[in-house]
Each structure stands twice: as C-alpha cells, then as structure tokens.
Amino acid sequence: MVSISPGKVFGPPLGTNISSQTPTNCNLMLRGKMPIGAKITFPVSDVTDVAQLHVQALKNSDAVGPLIIAADIKLERFADLAQILE
Prior knowledge:
- This protein has 86 residues and is of the alpha/beta class.
- It contains three helices and six strands.
- The radius of gyration is 15 Å and the shape is elongated.
C-alpha cells in the first residue's frame, strides 16, 4: 500500500456536476460571497497531478510503503487564490 496525501486539490471537474467542495468554494470566492481569511494558508495540488501519482503508484511495485506528499512547497493564502481566480 502507498499513501498519497495531496494538499488542497484544484482542477477541472469531470462533468457538469460542480456541487463538490472545491468548485463550490471557487464559485463563492469569485462572487465575493465567501469570507477570506488573510492569514489562512494551505498547500495546493493539481487534480491531474494527483491522478497521475495514483496511476504511477499502481504501476510501480517499488512504490509500496511510502507516504507521498502531493503538494506545492509554497503555501497559498485564500486571498491570493481569490485574486488568481478573478
């Protein structure tokens, strides 16, 4: 078994259902409806990168055992993310 631990995962949804947490939060931020804590930071992961890590872990028998942190080294602030999305 291998454990892949992503940061906050962002990326395009698979279909038209955007009722999951990330698209909902992004939508609220874009409309100015979500209070943004300026001092809150979090690691960020791209959904396609996390998916590729899962596929690689399944194909590689040497991947048994480790914890893989799938996140950018730089922590992002909610306020910065809102500006990027805008």
